[in-house]
Amino acid sequence: MAQIKVMIVEDELITAEAIAVLLKKSNYNPIAIVSSGEEAISKIKNLKLDLVLMDIILAGTMDGIETARIINTNYNIPIIFITAYGDKKTLNRAKLSEPYGYIVKPITNEDDLLPTIELAMYNHQVKKKLKKGNEKFEQIKRLIQPDKNILPSQINNLLERRNFLEQTNEDLNPMLEIEVFGEKINLVEWMKSLSNPDRFLIIEILKTLPLKLDEIQMFIGKSQSTSSHHIKKLEKTGFVKGWKNGKYIYYSLNKPKLTEFVQIWENWIKNLST
């Protein structure tokens, strides 16, 4: 596994070198130490970084918060602040640059450093998955929802009339029930369960590991009741299953059901084109 490459932005050289030693002991790769925000922004263009450790108070005209804001705007690199300042005003201003965490000086051993770094890298991977999942959802939406602006007016009228009829008369639903693992399933209901981007993102993040409801809520940024509603919809179609471990309920993907859905969907699309 490739080492995680880190830039340390710290104007106290002794502190920066001590942090670099701790990183190396933990199999991280501190590939750059800089003392100012200007130098960090100049060097970051040519470095393939995985993480930035940023002191809030720096030499030069820019402090760490302003430097982090510029890096966030232009690069997708997680930033952790290193600070000896814990006052509310500084922290509130630091939050605006969306850091992945804070490490308070003095940093004397790996335990002061590693938990925050590991959590930051994990959260960064989850955010990338969510972004990728959202992009996939938008692609699917474009496939199944024609752009009315590029269709002739007669077709637009037909689409609108069809949508109205489907909403008012369930008998017009062309998709009959099918049997999957001995259970009657309606393909339309399966598709509806993925009609919300949040549910699509839940499936994306559950591909990695089982999660509790509060963790799912944190990742999709919705209320507990909304997150629970989405989970119930996905459970109803069998894409997601819950199981109890101690006092908590964890949710994971029901991969056989998802695989069956994909195969049925692919066959249906093939039939349309023949």
What do you see in this structure?
With 274 residues, the protein is of the alpha/beta class. The chain folds into two domains: 5-123, 3-Layer(aba) Sandwich (Rossmann fold), CATH 3.40.50.2300; 176-274, Arc Repressor Mutant, subunit A. The protein has eleven helices and ten strands. It has helices at residues 13-25, 37-44, 64-74, 88-95, 114-144, 153-168, 187-192, 197-206, 213-220, 224-237, 255-272; strands spanning 5-9, 29-34, 51-55, 79-83, 101-104, 177-180, 183-186, 211-212, 240-245, 248-253. It has a five-stranded parallel β-sheet with strand order 2-1-3-4-5, with helices on both faces. Helix 3 (64-74) links the parallel strand 3 and strand 4. The protein is elongated, with a radius of gyration of 25 Å. Residues 143-152 and 161-175 have low confidence and may be disordered.
